[in-house]
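Sequence only, no structure available. Ideas?
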Amino acid sequence: MPSYSLLVNGRSRTVQAEANTPLLWILRDNLGLTGTKFGCGIAQCGACTVHLDGEPVRTCVLPVAAVGAKRVTTIEGLSPTTTHAVQKAWIAEDVPQCGYCQSGQVMAAAALLAKKPQPTDADIDAAMTNICRCGTYQRIRAAIHRAAKEA
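Reply:
I predicted one. Tokens follow.
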């Protein structure tokens, strides 16, 4: 079985896995980073979103062999103390209901704000393609605007 060197949350990690193993399972099963969730398995829902060199990616379909030397940031690495502006805004706006999609939502929102520090509603709608089965989209939008103001 091949070995892969990954830079995850600022730490170099080596894992053994088949080349086509989705990064999601490397993060969860090999590295114990369970904040990234499995939802649909076909890159539609976004529960598995992490950053790859700052870009949001869906890890359920991203083979570990495709990661290479890119930096992987999970919800655990975004801010271990939950002090990232998006995380604080999520709490202030009471976004989560069931909470299952929230780590992917937060990661997508953080990537959006890194590119567009003052996004419009249209920017948010275009960037936030993650699915929330509880339907908290209005609170998600409000939290993103709050995070933009406080960042």
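The CA atoms of residues 76 and 121 lie 27 Å apart.
Hope that gets you unstuck.
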